[in-house]
Design goal:
single chain; alpha+beta; HU Protein, Chain A; 3-stranded antiparallel beta sheet; two-stranded antiparallel sheet; extended
Length: 99
């Protein structure tokens, strides 16, 4: 599902216009990105937590040349799934395995 399909699905479920839903989803994404870039967490109960994590400089290997390289330190976004989200995904998995 891409962003357009998500907007359509939410608009259908809520009865709101696609334009209104697009504004809300875009604002939600922008707010999460801004908050996480400022090294704060966004915790959505039942869904998960968006945060940033500092990754130290490390050694790596260029797959094309097999040459040893140094990978720079970086701040990366992370997402930890909430229990309800995990349970819903696993329920769907167990339903499909039983069929």
């Amino acid at each position: 599902m891409n962003k357009t399909e998500l907007i359509t699905a939410v608009a259908t479920k809520t009865g709101k216009s696609k334009k209104d839903v697009e504004t809300v989803i875009t604002s939600l994404i922008e707010t999460i990105v801004e908050t996480v870039s400022n090294e704060e967490k966004v915790h959505l109960v039942g869904f998960g937590t968006f945060a940033s994590h500092y990754r130290k400089e490390r050694k790596g290997c260029d797959p094309r040349t097999r040459e040893r390289i140094v990978i720079s330190a970086a701040k990366i976004p992370t997402f930890k799934f909430g229990k309800c989200f995990k349970d819903a995904v696993n329920k769907n998995l167990s339903d499909s395995v039983e069929e």
